[in-house]
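so my prof wants the structure for this chain in the tokens format not the other one, which i didnt know existed until like an hour ago. anyway here's the sequence
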Amino acid sequence: MVSEAVFEEKVEELEQWIASHNSLPEKIENIVIRRYLNSVNADIEEAKKLIVHSYTMRTKYPNLFYNRDPLDEKIRQINNVVDLGIPMPKLTDCKRRIVFNRLIDHDPEKFDFDTIIKAFFLAADHRFSFVDEQLPNKINAGDIPVFDMQGLSYRHLTKISLSTLRCYMKFTQEAFPVRLQEIHLINASPVLSRLLTILKPFLKARVSKMLNYHLPNSTTFHDFIDQDLMPNEYGGKAGEMKDIKSNFIKGLESQRNYLTSDKHWKPRDKNNNTVTNIRTTFQDLDID
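here's what i got, hopefully its the right format
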């Protein structure tokens, strides 16, 4: 691990590099650059590849990354159906953040998959703006995604758009500025087997190895995660999930100007929808 002084130098170098390329947004926030750099163990060339890949993908899927608004009625409605990327208040002992996802309303007719994925990325961009002043480099050590599978039915699976799923899987596995070591699926049911069949063509081997499955009423999840860090509904002490989510959504909506501003997300060169002048490959980048 590099020193904080060296890390700061690399962040500054990346800021200058970003400013020199019209194919990237006008302003990528300092804390977001830190996350890109941290996610590749402070390797500046790999960070450049990751940034290029991330913002190129955004231009290729404008329906999921552009023209979004946390106050949009469809986004607000879908937040009543699912909890998406809700960060728990406290970090684990290894300074990782538990990020919770679950169905609230189990009615498949309300399961608008495209809007769910759009809202998920919106929530993630808000979460990536968090600054942990007390931690080295002002960011946590990584994320631990938790997916509660309760309420998921075969009818939900019929609502999945494969093109949107492909984007979600590619972006979260290749273009997210996070470090992952484990992913947990709790309250696993027979539906999960069918879901994994759908996911298999898009699931990278290194990510597949991170998956941990936990049956309903099992305690295996707490072999990995301190139960106290979970919401009260899950036997923890983090607070009621509705309150945790309410605070997160308030923060999300308060960042509306940032999340809807083109200068943070779209290329400065409006005629260039791909990062052609800084082409690079991303195939060998590992998510640690």
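also thought this was worth mentioning. The CA atoms of residues 129 and 135 lie 15 Å apart.
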